[in-house]
């Protein structure tokens, strides 16, 4: 990778020196902003982000782009507008707290057209240097080539944290999912491997082990995790999940739980206990508060009414009636006792379903996805991101960041100044990662697509990005070490009534 | 002069034919003819089940695994099967190159030259044996992988021979180091064979074999150690699979585990069979090394030449007989599939007549063709029907072999698309999946998604035109409804959205789904639903649907099979649940159909007490094209 960078830089410098492009002297105004992909016009970006490579989607024979910030100017020729990493960061440094103006010129029939300039607003709020995500083809039942990756978002470097091909999987497959970190650091983290050699890969104080979180008293092994930011416990949902397919609806699939509860795992004592397991309730998506003393989760009340049908069959027929509220229970770390259930956001009263609550690091705001029904909003076109003020109970949609397509799998940066989420807005099917700036009032700016080295990357890349998470440091355990852990025997947990 | 010319030519030709030299020529020309004619549908399908894109990301994704380069260049060559004759010509030309290189590199003496056909045969039958594996192999370039690896090995061996003996062990190490990421397991085997050759050459020349033996040992050590080093350069392969990179080793072993019990057993179900050609390929090269070692001791002469020729011809005959998957149904399915893309619907239907023991895919394809032609209600049961077993060691599902096309034609766009996605995940994107995905999403109205697949297809060598044709509909969606090709799927998409699961059983799911009729179904939808009820032998549903049919089109006369089903169900019901007005039967059911059922019933009484299978034989000649026969004798239909 280093060699590639060096050669790349030399090549770019050589090209720039040999034929440095210049802005056309004469041009006519196009009278509008240009069409570019990705849609980076007038976005707010962190002062340490990778170059926002884009392509100009205007017909023409020649293309020139001028970047200007604080007296510094950079001119790039070509339809593909890619600024070398070092030059880009030099420009970001100049524009920090201000903006980079971008002006495009397109030559058509011997005449240069000048488009209205747009800008990159450079926020002084830096972003966590690493993110991780799972790369998964947007299939439904099949999984063959899955990997959890980490990306340095100051440049384009991507590394595999773990790939399911690292253990022999034929004829049985292995699914991997739900990576999570404690306090944005990687010495306490986890992800699951399912089916073949399944178990939860749990890194506790830097040491990796495989844990079997399934007990006789719980529905399944752990699924959606949430590390308590202050104490040594992790909340999980346990789910019995199925998939059914739409014959016509563009949402294509419904991922439903026929049963689900919330448990808490103590990685020191290797015990689990229930937090929420109502007989007619589907509890899922746990999330700890910033102080670690409140556990939020989603819950849908769904009674099995028609006993002539199986529970799951009835839920399939009534799928639009499954609506999740956000509830909470306080937790006393001294006694290990949970308090009474409190309703935080009664989405069902609005005829909606709220999922995936994520509390901001400051503890004031809760980010969640809201759609008409169900729990798996990443397949729901109407799913949008909302913010709930936990103090005032006001809530609002992130209008500038949302789109008419699914938004979900959101995460706060460690500073709470940035959010990262998955959206299918590009082609309606493949989820891509978007980053948006959050102000102190919990209002998001226009979101921008995670930059890649080539603007064509997303056109042909056949995996979805999901469950993105911010990290302040990279995962240091190698994929091969994780593979060895997965091949080993799991630690079995014990079910207890109290998680103290 | 003019008299002697033709005679000379004839005698020359006769001489050539008598000469053993013509065997290779006849073999390669004959092979090209067979591949480009008899197997043209297979070759085209192989191209459709592969993909090659002129794109950096595609190259990088291929190279992310050991043997990635071999995958890449093999996929490049496979795409030429788009034109079966051209693809076959390239394939045969490369086989011929192997033949010539073997002779040259191993310095085969005149009498033994024909032995060079043995690796060629092994390479050929490693492909022709595949059958239904073409849908399941996770190696889109499989047809060329062993062939190109062999060619590269022979070229490397040619270089190896020209390197000083003392340097050969370094050559081998470099070969494995460079070759393994490019060629995978083939590079390892090649290194071993280079070592063997070196020992053999020294033995032949009665030189000290210490250094060559050391080279062989180094080759073995390099082949064992270097993949392990590379394990830490890849995250796409497990340590256990490093030595089999480039071979379908895990799938062939995995399929044995997943093997289903078949009612009838064929040696095609024996999973280890598929290894034999590759073992023969390896063995043939070991054999050539032995020949090199024994070069000075071997006799040369006409007699030896004839014996060698006889052995090679016999081996060829045996290998081709044993390893050429010649299942009629498989061939028909491929021919039907190709004809469906070309909208040659009469051909699709007629191909279904070419087999007695048919598969469900053939039947379903034929039904679609008849609906397209508007003759289903008069022709549907006049073709062979049943559900023959699939000759394969692994479970073969219609979802992989033809389900996407069937779902599309029946207006189930989401399901067609779903299986494109599922299979793309499992087996990698292929042309066929991309085409189905683009077309399904176009008709589902999801133009942005359709555009994505169109854009990918535009990066292929031969499907750019197809993609651009489809793109016209995105630019002007009004054209969609005006296009004849889309009329049937659009007419059949008049249903309400519902949630469902097909469990990979396409026909069972479809016939079940057609039970649900929306408020305003099209006439075609009612007819397909009616036929589905007849296939399910569901008389209750039939009565409901025939009533809807009457209301929808007020027929003065019923199509043949509606008449037969109506009369049969009336007879079975005996007025218990259904009654019709006087004169109804005479008005809508022809005398000939009535007479046919009468004679059918009479014959049933005649054979009373006979086993059903035996009875079916006696009815087949006279009634095989009736619904009565289908109702009583086509049973235990297994949808796969």
What tags apply to this protein structure?
heterodimer, A: 500 residues, mainly beta, Immunoglobulin-like, Neuraminidase, seven-stranded mixed beta sheet, five-stranded mixed beta sheet, 5 helices, 45% strand, B: 640 residues, mainly alpha, 35 helices, 0% strand, disordered N terminus
Structural description of this entry:
The complex is a heterodimer of chains A (500) and B (640). Chain A is mainly beta and 500 residues long. Chain A folds into 2 domains: 31-123, Sandwich (Immunoglobulin-like); 130-491, Neuraminidase. In chain A, the strands form 8 sheets. In chain A, strands 1, 3, 5, 6, 8, 9 and 10 form a 7-stranded mixed sheet that branches. Chain B is elongated and about 105 Å long. Residues 1-5 of chain B have low confidence and may be disordered. Chains A and B meet through strand 19, helix 4 and helix 5 of A and helix 4, helix 13, helix 22, helix 24 and strand 1 of B. Strand 19 (234-246) of chain A pairs antiparallel with strand 1 (499-500) of chain B.
